[in-house]
Design brief:
This protein is α/β, with parallel strands linked by helices. The protein has two domains: about 140 residues, P-loop containing nucleotide triphosphate hydrolases (Rossmann fold, 3-Layer(aba) Sandwich), CATH 3.40.50.300; about 70 residues, no CATH class. It is globular, with a radius of gyration of 20 Å. The chain has a six-stranded mixed sheet, sandwiched between helices. It has a four-stranded antiparallel sheet with strand order 2-1-4-5, covered by helices on one side. Helices cover about 35% and strands about 25% of the residues. A hairpin with a 2-residue loop joins strand 4 and strand 5.
Length: about 270
């Protein structure tokens, strides 16, 4: 018997009412994510990626269609879904420990168990030495690691990521991509990532859903096969990246030429 998807988005459409008129933000979205899968949503600004993520989180329930998490309809935010935004949104008056612990306020665990969980998740993101630091004392990458620890400390089976690395410098972003991939894989978490960065989507995801705008809709769903070794210089990686870029309307460019160059070197 086939296991039911962890996340099911069934015929979801969403309208916003702006200046007395209706704007169709999403149209007939059908999408699933298996338990433990890393799913990426890519598309131009305004195609509804972040709107869809808000619906999955339960921040907005005014839409047509159904969203199910582990077979249950999404009616409100819940501890089963952790969220990481582009901005870390840390509370400046709390330490690193305090910011992560804040996510456990509604937990029924005892204080000792909460302390242990916070310590485990600071270790998970490599910030144990900065437990007593304040957000103003952290780099952007470190602050985003705190945000990831905060999203995970309740041990949610689902992690929603809205451009979580978009505000970081290129080198920090690459390092945190590796951290994020490790954390999701080791934890068996189902992750849904919204990103404009096609390389990031190919590197992190098991499948990529390409969205088109006006209204927001799914244009294609592409598997990231085992032959894509997640090495950014590999021909298969470059081919998949260029396929996604083509679906987004970006003209064939250096990526395909680079892949051809690698093919020639291998053949030689």
């Amino acid at each position: 018997m086939t296991e039911a998807p962890g996340l099911e988005i069934l015929g979801v459409s969403k309208r916003f009412h702006v200046a007395g008129g209706a704007v169709q933000a999403l149209s007939d979205i059908n999408l699933t994510a298996r338990r433990g899968e890393f799913l990426a949503l890519v598309g131009a600004s305004g195609c509804g990626k972040s709107t869809l993520l808000r619906l999955i989180l339960g921040l907005d329930t005014d839409y047509d269609g159904r969203i199910l998490v582990d077979g249950q309809p999404v009616l409100r935010p819940g501890l089963d879904r952790g969220m990481v935004f582009q901005e870390h949104r840390l509370l400046p008056w709390l330490t690193v420990t305090g910011n992560v612990a804040a996510a456990l306020r509604q937990s029924r665990l005892g204080q000792a168990e909460k302390r242990d969980l916070v310590a485990q998740h600071l270790d998970l993101v490599g910030l144990t030495r900065f437990a007593t630091a304040y957000p103003s004392q952290l780099s952007g990458g470190m602050a985003q690691r705190v945000a990831i620890a905060r999203a995970l400390v309740n041990r949610p089976p689902f992690l929603l990521l809205d451009e979580p690395l978009g505000a970081l410098d290129a080198l920090t972003r690459l390092r945190l991509q590796d951290e994020l991939k490790r954390i999701v894989s080791d934890g068996g978490i189902t992750a849904v990532l919204v990103t404009h960065d096609v390389d990031e989507a190919v590197y992190l995801a098991n499948r990529i859903a390409v969205m088109h705008p006006n209204p927001g809709r799914i244009a294609a769903i592409l598997p990231v096969t085992d032959s894509v070794e997640r090495d950014r210089s590999e021909p298969e990686f470059i081919r998949l990246r260029d396929t996604v870029l083509g679906l987004l309307g970006v003209r064939e460019g250096t990526g395909r030429r680079a892949a051809a160059d690698v093919d020639r070197r291998v053949a030689a």
